[in-house]
Amino acid sequence: MSTTTLAVLVPLLPFLGALAGLLLGRTAPGFVRPLAVLPTLAAAVLAVVVAVRQGGGKPISAATELTPTGSVPIDLSLYLDGFAVLVAVLVGVVATCVQVYSTAYLREDPRYPSYAALVSLFTSAMLLVVYSGDLMVLLVGWEIMGICSYFLVGHYWETEAARSASLKAFLVTKLGDVPFLFGLFALAADAGSFQITKILGTVAAGGLDHPTLIALLLLAGVAGKSAQFPLHTWLPDAMAGPTPVSALIHAATMVAAGVYFVARLLPVFAASQAALVVMAVMAAVTMIGSGLAALAQDDIKRVLAYSTIGQLGYMTGALAVGDREAAVFHLLSHGAFKALLFLGAGVIIHAAGTNSLAAMSRMDGLAKRIPDAFWTMTIALLALAAIPPFAGFFSKEAVLVAAEQTATGHSDLAPATAGWVVLVAGVLTALLTAAYAARLWLMAFRGHGAAAPDHGKEPLAMTGVLWLLAVPSIAFGLAFGPLTDWLDGSGLTPTLATSLLGTGAAVIGGLLTYGLWQRATAKAAAAPAAIGAAAAAAAGAATEQPAAMAASTSAATAAAVSAAETPEVDEVTHEHPAVPAGPAPDPGRALLGPLHRHAAAGFHLDAVYDRLFVRPVQASAGLVRFLDREVVDTYVRGAGLGPRLLGALVRRAQTGNVQTYLSALLAGAVVLAIATAVLANVNAGS
Amino acid sequence: MHLAYPAVLAALLFCTGLYGVLARRNAILVLMSVELMLNAVNLNLVAFDVWLRDTLHAGQALTLFTIAIAAAEIGIGLAIVLMVYRNRGTSDVDRLRDTAEGHEPDQNAARPEVAA
Amino acid sequence: MLTAHLAAAAQGPGFLSPTGVEIAFVLVGLATLGAAVITVNTKQLVHAALWLVVALGGIAVEYLLLTAEFIAWVQVLIYLGSVVVLLLFGLMLTKAPIGRSPDADSNNRWVALGVASVAAAALVWVVVDAFRTTWIDLDGPAQGSTKVSGEILFQHWVLPFEALSVLLLAALIGAIVLSRKDDAPTADGAAPAGQAATAATAAPDESKGQR
């Protein structure tokens, strides 16, 4: 078979699997699991074959026009370059892992058939987005993903949280999709085609009339899909869905689609310096904000969700400095370790019976209960924190190198401002990432207290997948050499300066968290004995608080940290006395200080949106209701009043007495008769 | 004989019956008034038949038919009145107001004429 | 037209020189009308039926005066013989009070009076206006003898006559069905029992009102 045929089969197989799963789900439950896993697995294998055949060479482009569509033709087309085939491999592998994992994770779920079919459909849509060479076809996959995410996040629709989360995910991404659609149309209008190759040709020829406008419009859609500030709020809430779905959404599909889209159309964005700066600022805000928020979350899945937002910020940052190789490299490695993190988190939640990190920190020996998850999670967290030689290190280095090169003027693709913004934010985020990764690891696996409940051995379908994903988490980064051949070929090798900067920040963040955690643990151990003393000390410490706060702020933001500051921060932990019922040693509190409260609430963005959008909409809805009820209805009621009065009058005549009726009837008849007679006389006389 | 005499008599009788139908309360008295009206019509038919000297005597034949139909009508009418009386306890026409709005369907049921 | 009318009036016999038949007709007619008026006005229900006999009998006499003797006898037989008897039975079966009943007339009376008088005025005016000069020639061969009636009835009107027999049969069956007392125990449910109970409780004041 030709490479094109294989590539067509890749999105088609999961789609057919989804159709079959939806059709046969009820009638043939025995087929549901094979139908869920096998097409996805086949698609993954085919994606690998396509990737090998394409081999980083010339892009393979094939198009067929289904029907003429007027001035701007829409084709069913494939465009297979190195980025596409690699991302497709990632999507296929992660989707297969998720499907296999789900067979065990959702074993008892009565809605598993539809769930599996939707995951397949989701995968198929993402593969369509990846392979499509036509923006309209890409949009189809893009929107199918939106609706699938709505269904999957709302899988547990019995709970209010899942319902509202799915609605929120759908609405927020749609909010971005509207400008996205406009952007696509504007782009096609300027380029005269929806074909990516033609658009890129037009851009290269400088034929784009409104690059900034188009880039910003497209950027809105990307921000919605890839959960970038300010449209990221749906992602943490989307944790209401099943954990494998989170893994799928966060690692390979949906959020990756936005980054991938920008990577694909990077020349369009690069045509506008303003768009790149906006993108860089967006990425920086997203990275730092999500890092701070992740430090304050209690739900393990929400921590991971914010970490996803932060890593996506890296990718966007890489794109903002015009280096799509770094972005896609980070996309691939992040896909591997983030899928691993989520699936591992699923195992942890399964074993601990809770989502809460605080609750886990009060459990003893959780790591021993689930050794597979413990080890693989450790690997994935090290990768996330970008500790060499794990995968995250190399891809993050690529981003930082790109930013540094732009900042220092070695690369002229993007303005130096964008480079500086991304570089500073990236280093800062490296510290924050290491901090929350360490916090998660410490709180989840190094808890003290009652023994963790024993749920028996986790099924092989779950642990096996974890080890499978651990391999790329460890080793994928080392493949930066061969990867360069697949991508643009400008090199992904880490440089010494940025390596030192990034790794140093990560190590500092990790060590700081560890130190604070030890303090907090000691405090928590001492707390039961000294609750009264602690309360008195809190009152005494109140005078020192301003200074302590200032110190903690500097600790959290400027990363000017050392062991010397620990005593002061210690007082800050004092400011938040742990609840006597269950003192949970949480280094995040200490690290963030007064910021903690805001960070835990996601910097109140939801509240801001509530103020900015929800309330005005509700108020206007109330106004419309008032107008309808009180104003419009008054006219309607007034119009009804006349006939009603008339009816009341007529009703008075309906006495029910037959004789009255008859009297009226006969009186009328007599009148008519007389009138006839008179008229006849008059006519006769005339 | 002038035709005006029977014609005027018929008209007056008819209006007397009309008054009775509209004014009487008891259903049987209403039926009596209906009989009066029918007879007025019959008188008219006979008078005009005699005046016209119709070879078919349509007026007289129609009078006979009317009398027969009136007999049937009085039989059925009385049966209905009896049934109403048995069900409602009254044969007063102006108490049978089930068709009025806001009336309970059986408000007049079981009016105790039975006991009287 | 008008002159022709006047000429005809001048030619024909005038109202001021009535024949004997006319005098008899008017006298009987007055008696009939009076009886009819009493029928619709009397407070005593049984008297109304009896006055109806007088009125119907008067009409029979009028038929005779109009030489329609067969119809006169049919009138006597059917109306006086059966219909009035039926009505009396009906009064009896509905337990109509004997003696004066003050509520024999409904509240609709004045309206009825108005409608009736206006109708009477209109009819009389039209009839008189149309037929004031028309003359019935009562001489010549008898028009309403039994022989003549029989001939026309069974020669020309036999089909309607037969149809009428079917109608009478239907009326007969209908009357039987309607007036039959439903003695089936299923039909006599709780409702008649409740009816009887309310009837018993409300009985005294009602009977007082009727006396």
From TrEMBL, chain B:
Region Disordered: start-end pairs: 95-116
Transmembrane stretches, start-end: 61-85
Pfam families: Oxidored_q2
Cellular compartment(s): Cell membrane; Membrane
InterPro entries attached to this UniProt entry: NADH_UbQ_OxRdtase_chain4L/K, NUOK/Mnh_C1-like
Keywords: Cell membrane, Membrane, NAD, Oxidoreductase, Quinone, Translocase, Transmembrane, Transmembrane helix, Transport
The protein's Enzyme Commission number: 7.1.1.-
GO molecular function, one term: NADH dehydrogenase (quinone) (non-electrogenic) activity
Catalytic activity from the UniProt record: a quinone + NADH + 5 H(+)(in) = a quinol + NAD(+) + 4 H(+)(out)
Stretches with biased composition (Basic and acidic residues): 95-106
Catalytic EC class: translocase
Membrane topology per record: Multi-pass membrane protein
Function text: NDH-1 shuttles electrons from NADH, via FMN and iron-sulfur (Fe-S) centers, to quinones in the respiratory chain. The immediate electron acceptor for the enzyme in this species is believed to be a menaquinone. Couples the redox reaction to proton translocation (for every two electrons transferred, four hydrogen ions are translocated across the cytoplasmic membrane), and thus conserves the redox energy in a proton gradient.
Subunit and interaction comment: NDH-1 is composed of 14 different subunits. Subunits NuoA, H, J, K, L, M, N constitute the membrane sector of the complex.
HAMAP family: NDH1_NuoK
PANTHER family to which the protein is assigned, alphabetical: NADH-UBIQUINONE OXIDOREDUCTASE CHAIN 4L, NADH-UBIQUINONE OXIDOREDUCTASE SUBUNIT ND4L
Family: Belongs to the complex I subunit 4L family.
Protein name: NADH-quinone oxidoreductase subunit K
Species per Swiss-Prot/TrEMBL record: Streptomyces goshikiensis
Taxonomic lineage from the root: Bacteria, Bacillati, Actinomycetota, Actinomycetes, Kitasatosporales
